[in-house]
Amino acid sequence: MVAGSREASGYSLIELLFAAAVMATVAAIAVPQAFAFLDRARAVSAARFLASRIAVARSQAVMRSRHVALRFDEGDAGITFRMFSDGNRNGVRNADIAADIDPALGPAVRLADLYQGVAIAVAPPAGLDPVRFGASNLLSFTPLGTSTSGSVFVRGRDGSQFAIRVLGSTGRARIQRFVERSRTWSDTY
Questions:
Q1: Longest dimension (CA), the chain
Q2: How confident is the model at residue 2 (pLDDT cuts 50, 70, 90)?
Q3: In the chain, where are the structural domains located?
Q4: Which strands sit side by side in the sheet containing 109-110, from one edge to the other?
């Protein structure tokens, strides 16, 4: 060390500004991708949740030895679903639900209440009905485990689209994801 010189400690203002600029650039790139990942994860979770509720309705029908149905209702806040049991052994019907013959097995559920930014909906511009069980809003299961055939569509905030497809002969649900690049549906994990 030379007499009279001091060793510099710390960083210069230029170095600190450069480091802050690099961190800001990295954050500007990473944060939107992290939010997109979270939106996609919420949509996947919501589709799995709905598929599990369908499986529960099927198992309830078999366990109770009576028809059980999920009814999908559209309101101002979006589509809700609720499970009902057959009260008079003629199947779950909307008229019997309105007359309190077919009782509810729980409260109505709206996906957006559980998964922020997710809804039972079809991504634009399709504009089609997101609940497709023929002309009905009921997904009905028999005591043998068979069901109405059809699909329910779940849309994420990021535009991701999932379909829960119910096969009537088995009453089982499978989840498919819409692949925008190829414009096809593929099975999910």
A1: 102
A2: low
A3: 13-63+116-187
A4: 109-110, 78-85, 68-75, 138-141
b/e map 14-48, b = 16+ CB within 10 Å: eeeeeeeeeeeeeeeeeeeeeeeeebbebbbbbbb
**The two three-digit tokens of residue 92, written as one number:** 């779950």
Q: What is the pLDDT of residues 95-131, one digit of tens each?
A: 999 999 999 999 999 999 999 999 998 866 555 778 8
Distance from C-alpha of 23 to C-alpha of 43, rounded to nearest angstrom: 30
CATH architecture of 13-63+116-187: 3-Layer(bab) Sandwich (3.55)
Q: Cα(187)–Cα(123) distance, rounded to whole angstroms?
A: 18
